[in-house]
Amino acid sequence: MTWAFGILLFLLTVAAMEGVAYVAHRWIMHGPGWFLHRSHHRPRTGNWELNDLYAAIFAVPSFVLLLGGVQLGWWPGCAWIGAGIAAYGAIYFGFHDVIVHQRIPTRYLPRSTYMKRIVQAHRLHHVVETKSGTVSFGFLVAPRPEALKATLKQRRRAGVRAPVGAAADGSGGLGKE
């Protein structure tokens, strides 16, 4: 396999992982896997939450593909695909855990329109603390925050948690309407 094809396979895998992440988040984490993901929609007490087990679960295919492609004589493309899955996981960790949830202290402040949109979309996802009724399941591709706010309003804010020190205007922390 040529390096050029391997790199292309790697990049295609990273891009495809956004779709895999969307599907897993919407129909697994907010479905039968809610028993683990629920902890991520509640205030964290300590450094870890049950939802962190998903990182280990999603690392298994990457590890197996890397092992097979590098050590076990499988098709070499398996290693490139495994590396692409691992790269998406690293990107996800950086955006999700470091930038959005600030689990590792940083002074980073989103300035670009793209980064502000991703952060706001994910925060709007977290205003809903129930299994259903939430918005924005992707991570690197996010709908416009105005559209997400409109969807939450249309759903009559079912499951939306009241923010600490919520305003009496009933905005639910979603901004002016």
Cα separation of the termini: 55 Å
Which descriptor suits the 3D outline? globular
What radius of gyration results from the CA coordinates?
Answer: 18 Å
- Beta-strand fraction estimate: under 5%
Oligomer status: single chain
Low-confidence stretches: 166-177
Q: What structural category arises from helix and sheet content? A: mainly alpha
Q: State the helical fraction.
A: 40-55%
The whole-number mean of residue pLDDT values reads 87
Secondary structure tally: strands: 0
The count of helical stretches stands at: 6
Structural commentary:
- This protein is mainly α.
- Helix content is 55%, strand content 0%.
- α3 (53-70) runs antiparallel to α4.
- The protein is globular.
- The protein starts with a helix and ends in a 23-residue tail after the last helix.
- 22% of the residues are buried.
SSE topology sketch:
Elements: H1 3-29, H2 34-37, H3 53-70, H4 77-100, H5 113-126, H6 145-154
Helix pairs in contact: 1-4, 3-4
Keywords:
single chain; 6 helices; 55% helix; mainly alpha; globular; 177 residues
Summarize the structure.
This protein is mostly helical.
